[in-house]
Automatic annotation (TrEMBL):
Protein name per the record: Thiol:disulfide interchange protein
Keyword Transmembrane helix attached: no
Keywords: Disulfide bond, Periplasm, Redox-active center, Signal
Domain annotation Disulphide bond isomerase DsbC/G N-terminal: ranges: 22-89
Function field: Required for disulfide bond formation in some periplasmic proteins. Acts by transferring its disulfide bond to other proteins and is reduced in the process.
Domain Thioredoxin-like fold: 113-233
Top-level taxon: Bacteria
Signal peptide: 1-23
Species for this entry: Polynucleobacter paneuropaeus
Lineage, top ranks: Bacteria, Pseudomonadati, Pseudomonadota, Betaproteobacteria, Burkholderiales
């Protein structure tokens, strides 16, 4: 009995030591690589990858790879040959995932099609051409609730338009009319527009650097003007 206990104790200690060594190696690589890349590139973490001797490097929400000596920085995808699984893409999706409950719907323009049973959120700039293209596609979606968070990041005019839309008597209609038909926005911007400031801060926190950016209820994101077929495919996967 004592021999068995000693065996499990040795195994536990060995695993603990291995974990400690691994953590120290990761910290060493991170420090060395950070020094080489400079302060303008902030490394969030360095962890082991599925390939021996190769480590995953997280910079913002992007994934790179390096060797144990931090001599090389690799940009590309790791694909598991046996299954065809894109490990890098899966990891990237996990890093970009958010908590749907963290999105403050009170700061969004709410548009409902049909019974509104499906949900998605969009961060958009009113002067964004891709956002306008996406909005036209979304008109074909049925049974969906769309939460649009205005983030005026393109110009001073974007700020003006965002505030006018938010302050309109019917923000959702004003937004759609502008984005779809180019109907001039004539309202004032004299209401409380703190929601737009909060949206900008939230976008920064979520690492949103361009519009449109779409989020689904599982927290996954689609950057750019996604195709309607891809949106429908994603909705189907959520059932």
């Amino acid at each position: 009995m004592n021999k068995l206990l000693n065996f499990f104790l040795c195994i536990t200690l060995s695993l603990g030591f291995a974990s400690l060594v691994s953590a120290q190696t990761e910290q060493k690589i991170k420090a060395e690589l950070q020094g080489k890349l400079g302060s303008n590139t902030k490394i969030k973490s360095v962890t082991v990858s599925p390939i021996a001797g190769i480590y995953e490097v997280q910079v913002g929400n992007d994934v790179f790879y390096t060797d144990v000596n931090s001599k090389y920085l690799l940009q590309g995808e790791i694909i598991e040959v046996a299954t065809g699984k894109n490990i890098t893409e899966q990891r990237q999706n996990d890093l970009n995932r958010i908590k749907w409950a963290d999105l403050p719907s009170a700061n969004a323009i709410k548009i409902v099609h049909g019974n509104g049973s499906r949900q998605l959120a969009i961060f958009a700039d009113p002067n964004c051409g891709y956002c306008k293209r996406l909005e036209k596609s979304l008109q074909q979606l049925d049974n969906v609730t769309i939460y649009t968070y205005l983030i005026p990041i393109l110009s001073a005019d974007s700020v003006q338009k965002s505030k006018q839309i938010w302050c309109a008597s019917d923000p959702s209609k004003t937004y759609v009319d502008w984005m779809i038909n180019g109907t001039p926005i004539t309202g004032k911007n004299d209401c409380n527009t703190v929601a737009i400031d909060k949206n900008l801060s939230l976008a920064k926190t979520l690492g949103i650097t361009g519009t449109p950016t779409i989020f689904f209820v599982d927290g996954s994101r689609f950057p750019g003007a996604a195709q309607l077929t891809d949106i429908e495919k994603k909705f189907s996967s959520l059932k």
